[in-house]
Amino acid sequence: MKYWLRYSKSGLMRFVGHLDMLQTWERILRRAGIPLTFSQGFSPRPLLSLAAPLPVGMSSYAEYLELETREEVPALTKMVTPALPQGMEVLGAVRVPTDVKALMGLIRYADYKVEDLGPEQWTCLEQQLSSFLDKEVVLQEVKRKGGASTINIRPLVASARLEDGALQLRLATGSTANLRVEDFLNQFSLAHANLTISRRELYLEKEGQLFTPFEYITCSYSR
Amino acid sequence: MQEILRLVEKPARYLGNEWNAVHKDHEGRVTIALAFPDVYEIGMSHLGLQILYHVANQRDDTVAERVYAPWTDMEEQMRQRNIPLFALESQRPVREFDLLGFTLQYEMSFSNIINMLDLAQIPLLAKDRGEDDPLVMAGGPCAYNPEPLADFLDFVVLGEAEQALSDVIEVYAEAKAQGLDRYNTLLALSRVPGVYVPSFYQVHYNGDGTIAGVEPIGDVPPVVYKRVLADLDPQFYPTEPVVPFLGTVHDRLMLEIFRGCTRGCRFCQAGMIYRPVRERNRQDLLALAQAALKASGHNEVSLMSLSTMDYSDLSNLLDEFLDRFSCDHIRLSLPSLRADSFSVEQAMKVQQSRRGGLTLAPEAGSQRLRNVINKQVTEDDLLRAVASAQAEGWQSVKLYFMIGLPTETNEDLEGIYELARKAAWAHRYLGVQGKPLNVTVSAAAFVPKAWTPFQWEPQDSMYLLEEKQRLLRNLFSRERRLKLNYHGAELSFLEAIFARGDRRLGAVLLAAHRRGCRFDGWSEHFSFAKWMQAFADAEVDPTFYANRHRRREEVFPWDHLSPGVDKEWLWQEREAAWRQDTTVDCRPTYCSVCGVCQQLPTQIQLAKE
Asked: Domain spanning A2-99: which CATH class is it, in words?
C-alpha cells in the first residue's frame, strides 16, 4: 500500500535538516505503530521518501512524505498525529495507486511566500519585478553542488507577484529543473536573513496543467 | 534565539524539543541542569545522563533539563550577543538553576567545563560564587579523582547516582525551604552518603610536592565511599529516552545489560570502579527494550556493558531478542566482542556486525604482557576467533592494543606486529587456504588511572612513546594489508597528568582556559603548545604527575574518595602484575576480596548461574 502524507514543518522543526527528516519520520511511524514495508537485502530500510528537499530554517505547510505499508492503514492521520513532535502536523493523506511513479520524480513547481519585507525592499521589488518578468533571459550565478554556475533563471520562475503584503513565488522545483528561493532573491539583492520564507504548496504537471499531489491523485484516478 | 539558529551549523543541536524531552514549569521545583561537557552528538550518546534525566524528572518536585557544550560557532554567536549558556528545554540560562551537574567522562573535557561555566556567566571558582549562583556538582568516572577540578566544583557525587541524586534533591529542597545559605546547604549535602564537598577538605603537601595528608575540616567523613545499587532496578532505566533529531554517535537505543565487569584487567579503571557485576535478567531486558522501542521509535538496540560477551545468559537473550524484534526490522548491535569463537558465533546471529568488520582487543602483543595486565586472552583464542569470523564472511578485523604498558619491552611491541600478521592469515592456523584479511591495528598510549593496580606506575615519556610508535610504524610499513593507527602522544600525556592530578592543577586549568583551550578531544581545536604555556603560567611541572614513579606508601590525591576497592588489594594486584601472575575473574565461586562487596551493601548478581 502506498500513501502520500502532507504535513507542515514549522517552529523549531524548521531547523531539522532534510536528511535528518527521513530518520525522524521512520521514528514517528514506528512510534505510531504503522506497519512499514522494508526494502529487500542485507540491511533493509523502510520505504520512505520525501517529495522535495527543504532548506534548513524554512517553514513549510506543504511537505509530502511517500510511504509504503504492508497493509491498509485507513486511520493513518489519526495514528500518526500523537507521535509527532511539536512543530509538525499532518494535514492530510491519500492512498496512492501502486502504478503512480515516485513522488520525488514528479514534482515540478513549488509555491513560496516571502514575508517581513521592509518598505525599501517592497519598493525595490515593485519597481523591478515586472521588468524581470518581461525578460526572456535573466542570467544569474547560482550555487550548485560542484560550485557556482551561471544559468538563465527566468524560465524557472512561473510567477512572482506582490500580494497581501508578501512576495508570492512559484518556482521550478524538482529533479528536472530547480531554482532556490535564495537564488531568486539574490537577483534583487534582498538580504534574506531577516525575511520569513515558507513553502506553501508543491505541484505536479499533467498535460500542461499543474496539480497539487492530492489533486493529481483525485483527478487521475477518481473516475 | 531563532535568529542565531539560522547562523550556526547543525542548529538541531540546540532545540530542546526532541521527542520525550521533558518540559516542566520551574516554579516551586528544584531545578537541575544536567551538563555534558562536549558537543550534543556525543553528550546525547551517553546513557548515564539519560538515566539521571529520567530519575530526576520522575520526581514531581524536580525539573531536570539538558545542556551540552555549544559548538565553537554557537559559542561565538553567544559571546557576541552576550547570551549566557542556556538549558535546552526551557532555553533559560543555567545560572538561574538550583543545581548544575557535570558528568566527568574524560579528562580532556575538563577545559570545556571551565568554558561552559564561563559561558554560563557563573563565577569559575566555587569560592567566588554567591547565594544566587547554582551549586555546581559533578559525577561520573573521573569523579574518583576530581581533585584537578576541586576549585571549580561545589560538590561531587561518587558512584552510581540513581538513588544518590534523589537524596541530593531532597536535602537541597529541605535546605531551600529552611532558607539555609550556601555553606550550610553544602554542609547538609556532605551528610549524604557519596557526596564529597572539596572545600571541606584541606590538602597538606610534603616538601617534595607529594601529599602529606588530606584533612577533613569539621564534621565530614574522612573517606567518602561511592554509592552503589544493590541491583539494577528497572524503574531507573529510561524507557522514554530523549530521541535526537540529528545523527548522534550512538544513534540507537542503549540497553544496559549489566554494570561492572568480572574481568579485572589491571589497566582498566572502569573494571575497578563499577564493581561488582550486576546483571539484569533476560525478561526485564526484553520488557525494557520493548517499552523503550515503542516510546522512542528507534530501529536499533545496542546491548551495552563493559564486556557484553560475558553476560551469563547471552545466547538465550540474543535468540529471544531476534525472535521478538526481527519482524519489525529492529537491528541489534554488540558493542564489543571477546576474542573467542563463542563471541564470533553470537556476532553471527546478529548478522549486521559483519558490515563494520570485527573488533577485538588483545591489548598487548605477547602472552607475557597480557598476563601482566591480566587480560586473559590467548593467541590461540584470538586466531581461532578471527579464523571463524573469516569463514563467516568478515573481510576485515580491527585489533586494539596499548603501548607503554608497565614492563613493556621491544619484544612486546614486535609481538603486536606478529599477532596482526598472524591474524591476517588466521585461516591457515586452521589449515584452510585463502586470501588474507585486512587488519587494522589501533595502538593507544597507556594512561595510568587512579584506583587501578597501575596507579603507582609512571607513564612513558612522550619521547619514549613516540619512539615506540616509530618502531611500530617501521614494522607495519612492511606489509600493506596491515594498517596501523595511533593518536598523538601529547594528548595521552595530558590525560595522564589530569587522571592522577591534584588541586594544584586547578591553576593550570584556569590558565589553559585563559589561553583559549576547549574541545581538547577534537584534533582541530587541541593545542599542545597552549597547554604547555598554561603549565608554565601556573608554574606546575607536568611530568611530576605523568611520568613519576610513586612509592607504595605515597598518599594519593584520591585516597579519600573510595570506590570500595582497597588500596592494599590494588597494590597486591600490582605486585602480581610484576610477577606475571594472573587473577581469576570475580564470580560467586571465586573472590579475590578486592573490598567492594566486603565494604559496600552490594554483591555480584548474575542473570543465570
From this structure: alpha beta
